[in-house]
Amino acid sequence: METQTIVIILVGFFILHWYSSLFFQSLFHHRYAAHGMFRMSNFWEKTFHIGSFITQGSSYLSPYAYGVLHRLHHAFADTEKDPHSPIFDKDVFHMMWRTRKIYNEIDQEIAVVGEKFKKGVPKWRKFDKFAESKFTRLAWVAVYIAIYFLFNSPWWLYVLIPIHVLMSPVHGVIVNWFSHKYGYRNYDVKDTSTNLMPVDLLMWGECLHNNHHKFGGRPNFKVKWFEFDPMYPFIIIMDKLRIIRLNHKPETQYM
């Protein structure tokens, strides 16, 4: 196989992993688990758990831990109680390490968290325990390395493997660091959230962060005519197919 073909295949695999893993994080973890923008049956909830595991792989996030942590972020944005705030961490690495610590405490159910932050958040703890085990995570790492090895990847493409391994935290960095430091603001909310880009094709609409902090219960992160949230059309389609059912709650109700 020619080198050019190998590069196209492996870059395509990376792009597929980027968008598929973030699709589940944005739709299931964020808009469903954390914010309850729509509801779904127990069958579909478990299906989305499994889909998250397949696409996120070694960086699988528990929807329960993610949902609770993200609700805390909205409740205490840019305060000392915020699980991830650029204001209280000197760099992105310190912020993500602190986020990891709080996430683990929630995931292990040793963190003291108010009941309102846990209400309605999906829980499949046996599955989470399997998906987050060291053995499972290392198995996924081996899969990523094997794919590049079997395709006889050029050495320089191996730099993508750490991103594969840490895909979910990488997505978190882009939103929770850069979308609190750069970009524009439509609303003067009581935190530093920004819209990193108006047409967010990179992050499934997640970087329309200032809009989202203003309207935490709104499934469409687009507000202005020139903005676009690519996840929202999928939400409408899934609602029409009755995979999910939109809740039509007040747009500022984030839990």
Briefly summarize what is shown.
Helix content is 53%, strand content 2%. It is an all-alpha fold.
Order of helices and strands: HEHHHHHHHHHHE
Strand order of the largest sheet: 1-2
Tell me the strand percentage band: under 5%
Alpha-carbon distance between the two ends: 51 Å
Uncertain segments: none
Overall tally of domains: 1
Number of strands: 2
Q: Could you describe the largest sheet, including whether it forms a barrel?
A: 2 strands, antiparallel
Shape: globular
Question: Can you give the mean pLDDT?
Answer: 96
Helix share bin: 40-55%
Q: Work out the helix count.
A: 11
Structure, explained:
The chain has 255 residues and is an all-alpha fold. The chain has one domain (3-246). It is built from 11 helices and 2 strands. The chain has helices at residues 3-34, 42-56, 63-75, 92-107, 115-118, 125-131, 134-150, 161-165, 167-176, 209-214, 231-240, and strands at 38-39, 245-246. Helix 1 (3-34) packs antiparallel against helix 2 (42-56). 36% of the residues are buried. The model has no long low-confidence stretch (mean pLDDT 96).
Fill in the keyword field for this structure.
255 residues, mainly alpha, 11 helices, globular
How is this fold's topology laid out?
Elements: H1 3-34, E1 38-39, H2 42-56, H3 63-75, H4 92-107, H5 115-118, H6 125-131, H7 134-150, H8 161-165, H9 167-176, H10 209-214, H11 231-240, E2 245-246
Antiparallel strand pairs: 1-2
Helix pairs in contact: 1-2, 1-3, 3-4
